[in-house]
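Person: Please comment on this record:
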Amino acid sequence: MQGKKLFLDKEVTCFRLSERVPPHNLYRRLAELVDWSFLYDETRALYSHTGQPSLDPVVFFKLVLVGRLENLVSDRRLVEHCALRLDILYFLGYEVDEELPWHSTVSRTRQLFPSTVFERLFDHVFAQCVARGLVAGDTQAVDSAPVKANASLEAVLEKKASGPTGPHLSGRQQAPAAGSVVTAPAHQLRQLATGQRRRQGAQTGALGARHEQARLLSNKTHYSPTDPDARISVKPGKARALNYLCSLAVDTAHGVISHVQADFADTRDSLHLPRLLAGLQRRLRAHELRLRELLADAGYANGPNYALLEAQQVTAWIPVFGQYKPEIEGFAYERRTDAFTCAEGQALPFQKYDTNQDGAWHKIYWAPCHVCQQCPRKSTCAPRAKRKQINRTIYDAAYRRAWLRQQTRRGQRMRRVRQGTVEPVFGSLLHHYGLRRLNVRGQAGAHKTMLLAAVAYNLKKLLKHRPQQQVSAAVALPPPQLAAHRRAGQRNRRSEALTPALVLFLTRK
C-alpha cells in the first residue's frame, strides 16, 4: 500500500536539543574542544557595571566563528542560517524557541571589541595546536594575497591639492576617518595629471576617431570616502579593485597558521616582513619555540630583510630578484681592498654611499676620469659617460649568500615546500572561510576578520588531528651488553652448525 506522510505541525512538549545533536557533529565536538570562559575576563573591562545586559561575549565569538566555518560573509545571512540549524543552536547555547541576536547587534559588538581580544582568541587556539604537537616552529612559510574591501571603485574621489608641506595620505600614515577630505601635494597631482593626459591623447581609434577615455585611477590621486584605508591594487589576470593585503605565516609541520595581519595593498610585500616577523617571533617564544628557517617568494626579497633575518640567526630561503647579478661581466671584485678591477687591469675603488629613488642605500665605485678617457674599451664600456661607475647595494654580501642558497638542491626543495604549504592555505581561506570579501571597513576591522578566518582554520586542524599510535617499540642496549649479546648469538649459531656432525660421529662409534 502506498504511504503518505501527513504534517500536522503540532506543538512538541518533550524535546531536548542535546539529544538531537550526535556526538560526532562538528559543532558539538568544537564546543567540547575549546574552553571559551577566558573571553569573559578579556572583555570585562569593556562593559559598565550598570545598564542592560549585553550580548554574551562567548556567544558573539561563537557566532562570528560560525560565519567563517559556514563561509558566510553577511551578518544578516549568518543569523538567518543559524536559526535553521539545531547543531549551531546547541553550539551557541540557545534553545529552539529563543530568538538569536540581531545582525546589527553583532556588527556593533564587533566594533566594540578591540583587535587585542581577537588576537587573544587566536593565541588561545594556537596554544592548543602547540600542545597537540601540530606546530614545530622551526620552519615557517610566509606569503600574502589581496582581499576585496567593503568599498566600490566607482565611488572613489579625487584628492584635493595641498601645499608642499601640507598633510597628505600615504601608505605608512594613519588614514583619516570616512567622509573626510584627503589631500595630496599639488606638484605631485600636477605631474600625474600631465602623464595621464599624455597617455589618453595617445589612445586613438580607427581613422583618428578617439574612443571614450578610460578613467585612470591611482592611490596618489584618488581615495575611497567609504573606506579610506582601502587601497587600489591590481593582481595579474584580475581587475583593478579596492583591496587589503592579508599577510600570514604557516608552520610547515602540519599547515597551522602561526601569524596573520592586515596590511595596506599598495605597498610591496617586502615592507611588511619586519612587522610580521616581530609578531611571529613573539608568539613562538611564548611557547619556547625557535624559528630557524623562513620560506617566502621573491616579493619579500630586499637587503634589509636579508640582514634582519641573518641578525636573528634565521636562514632566509627567499629567492632574489631576477635583475640581481652576483657578478658583473668584465669586472672582478676584490673583497680585501673593496674594489673592482676591469678587464684592462684598472681598479675602481669604493668612493661613497648614496641612496636611490626608493631610499635604499648603495655603494658607488669609479675610477678617475683620465684613466677611463685613455682606455681603449671606453667606447663599449662607458660610451656616453666620462667614467665607468658601478653601483652595488650595501647588502650585496647578504644578497650573494641568498642567491647561492637558492641555486642548491635544498633551495629548490624549499621552494616546493613553500608552494605546497602556504598557497593551499590561502586558497582555503579565500574560498571556504569567507575571506573572499570583507564585510567591515577599516584596517582594524580587516585585521579582526582575518584573525577569525585563521582561528576557524586552525580549529578545523585541531578537530581533524589524530595522534599516531605507536605500533612497536625498540629497546636500545648499552654498548657492553650489546657486544655480549652479539657474541652469545655467534656461539649459538656455531653450536647449531656443529650439532648434526656430532650426532653422526656418536652414531658411528
